[in-house]
Structure formats: C-alpha cells, structure tokens
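Lay summary. Proteins are chains of building blocks that fold into shapes, and those shapes determine what they do. In this project we predict the shape from the chain. Here is one chain we studied, written as its sequence of building blocks.
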Amino acid sequence: MPCLNLSTNVNLEGIDMSSILKEATFAVVDLIGKPEAHVRVMLKSSVPIALGGIEDPVAYGEVVSIGGLNLDVNKKLSAAISTILEAKLSVPPIRFFLKFYDTLGSNFGWNGTIL
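And here is the predicted shape, written in a compact code that computers can read:
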C-alpha cells in the first residue's frame, strides 16, 4: 500500500500529468517491490511553496509504505522521482525533498478495518 504524495508550486496546465503519474508509479513498484494495484501516487500542483524565500520551481514529497523502505531503496527512489520532476516540471534536484515513512499495517484503515 505505498503512497507517494507530491506537491509542487508548478502550474500543470498543459502538462501531461498521466505520464508523470505512470512514471512515478513504475518507480515505486520497481524499487519498493509492491504490486502496482496497491500503489497510489498523488500530484498536487500550484501549491504555494517557497524554498529559502524563493518561489522558483520546487517540490516536496512523502512516501508512506508498509515495509519495503530502507537506505538503498530510499536513495534510488529519491533519485528516480527527482529525475521525473526535473524532466517533466523543470524542478531542479536541489529543490526537491522527499520524506520516507516506513510504517505498520495497523496504522492504516481500509475496508472498514485496519491492514
């Protein structure tokens, strides 16, 4: 049940969001090793964000997963998502931060119960 939640100050009007979602989903599936059917990727655009008081293109993300995260995976996933954001949204890697949460199934509700 990995979830990648991305927020950016970039306006996505005229940008192929589907390709961003697909590439990010593939990166999560490939690197965390969870089934594609369980991976969620959210992309919020035009979010007021400044980094160091500068409003140039910037992005922030969080990955939540029940297992599958570790130092090696986190490094690779950070690089993969950073590459996608730079190519698709012109967000330089130095202006992208990604936070990782490895959690327990008991911390998630689903289908009227917990995982």
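What the prediction tells us: Residues 13 and 74 are 30 Å apart (CA to CA).
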